[in-house]
Amino acid sequence: MVDWLIELQRTNPHVLKALLVGTLVSTACGVTGCWIILRRMAFLADALAHAMLAGVVGGFLVMKLLFGSQAYAPAMLVGSVFAALFTVVVVGWVSRVSRIKEDTVIGITYTGVFALGGVLLSFFSRHVHIDVVHFLTGQLLAVRMADLWAMAVVTVFVLSVYVLFFRSLQLAAFDRVLAASIGIPVLAFDYLLTACTSFVVVSGVNVVGVILVVGLLIIPAATAYLLCDRLPRMLAWSAFFGWTSFIVGYMWAEAVNVAPGSAVVVTGAAQFFLVLLVAPRYGVLADWLRRRRMIPQTFVEDVLRSVLKSGRSSLSLGELAGYVGTTPERLTRVVQRLVRDHLLERHDDRVQLTADGRQYARRLQRAHRLWETYLASVGTPQRELHDRADAMEHIHDEQAVDYLDDRMGHPLHDPHGSEIPEDFVHLVPGADVPLAMLRDGHRAVIVRVDDRELAEQLRVGDRVTVRARTEEGKQWNVELEDGRRLGLTHAQTDRVYVRLLEADDGEDDS
Fold first, then answer.
1. Domain of 414?
2. HSE-CB of 144 using CA atoms within 13 angstroms
């Protein structure tokens, strides 16, 4: 291995240097990009990269015109960091003092700062010697030792920062409010991350260019994000994807004689779309398979209600498929799920409802008929009632259905004349419920009367028996033990609370 490296350095000295600096910049960009992705700063990273031009030109001019020094690299680095911080400060300030949203402010600021760099570069063209083409696209094959050492120092520095402040950065990335509440200086870490991003961008300029360095910052991290749910793994995978995109891109550039910087980013983009396609959890194929295998809850509920609606103790799979209008293969998957949930029992080719399944199906039936009653009351045409109620019956949580039942005056029949099942969830022996919920034959004991006039006729402790309603179901008729009969309105029965008696105490379980 050592002999191969020595021979490589002797025959192609630029290759080994390019591989070393490429590995360093890929590592620094990949790891930094994870924090950018998690904090949704991708557009801001693009702004920082564009702001580099003004910082580089400014640093160059300061050293050239004011000090006559040749130490351009450190001055350009400091100028670039200053330009990046200036961009961040301006974006934050304008966002706070105006109604303009942050993404718009970023677009205004970074184009303005980038254009300012172009103006300075043009105006001081006699003093500033910057190859704009290489500044934008990089010069991987002409990397100097100073650039290599600068990249090494920056990589070690940013990795050290991420290791030392990992917990604080992690908490600030996922929950800024919690981080601030426990004393973490969130704003200081924002500026620290901005400084690290600036260092990485400036040091990576000579490798892939100021614009394409954004690709190395974002693409490997976004690729890793498709595969990982844990931050440490995401950091490792991002660095790995940065290395592979650089190595493959560089080899491709050498083979077809194209710009290495562009080839690296194109390779990274191709890598991203490949992972997007085949990622086991968040990929396009995985999502397609999940959706293909997915059984909508509405369809599951349609199967249960169809078994109940048939009026038979059991149905064959073929008969059930005809009721719900689906293929036998899809119905088989639904039946398997319902059997696992103990809502259906399957015996060879026939299925039947369990006790839990029958109760669930009755809830759906009750919701369907209540929705039909409600839709009819608001003027829905008769021919559309069933189809619309089919869509709305799946809103059947108890609170919603109870509200609908009370709103409609606890109707006994739907618009088609079918009986609406009673509220079997609350109407259980020993439960305290409004008298309005009881039906013909129910017996109960009065536990509270919230109407002064009714309190003179109905006393706590009296036993009542509910008789059939009259006046189209709008009058509740109750019989007391002393033989008295009372006709009550819905509003009155809602103010009388009773305790339902056990079946052997005379409750009719119809």
1. 363-425
2. 7
Q: Which amino acid is at 32?
A: T
CATH of the domain at 29: 1.10.3470.10
First to last CA, the chain: 88
Nearest Cα neighbor of 424 from 447, 401, 395, 393 is 401
Structural domains of the chain, count:
4
403 shares a domain with 447: no
Amino acid at 304: L
- Domain end residue (candidates: 384, 409, 425): 425
CA angle 303, 308, 310 (to 5 degrees): 95
By residue count, the chain amounts to 510
Residue 358 lies in a domain: no
Asked whether residue 12 falls in the same domain as residue 147, the answer is: yes
Tokens (6 digits) for 11: 């025959």
- Going across the sheet that includes 350-353, the strands are 315-316, 350-353, 344-347
Say which CATH number the domain at 495 has. Answer: 2.30.30.90
Task: State the 10-residue block means of pLDDT for the chain, 510 residues long.
Answer: 53 68 84 84 69 74 66 65 76 78 77 80 71 61 72 87 87 83 84 79 70 80 89 90 86 78 84 91 85 74 81 80 76 83 85 87 86 87 83 79 86 87 82 88 89 84 89 87 87 89 51
Under a CB-based contact definition with an 8 Å cutoff, are residues 135 and 205 in contact?
Answer: yes
pLDDT tens digit sequence for 427-472:
888 888 898 888 888 889 999 988 888 888 888 888 988 888 888 8
Q: Give, as one character, the DSSP assignment of residue 429.
A: T
Judge whether 406 and 398 are in contact, CB under 8 Å: no
pTM: 0.62
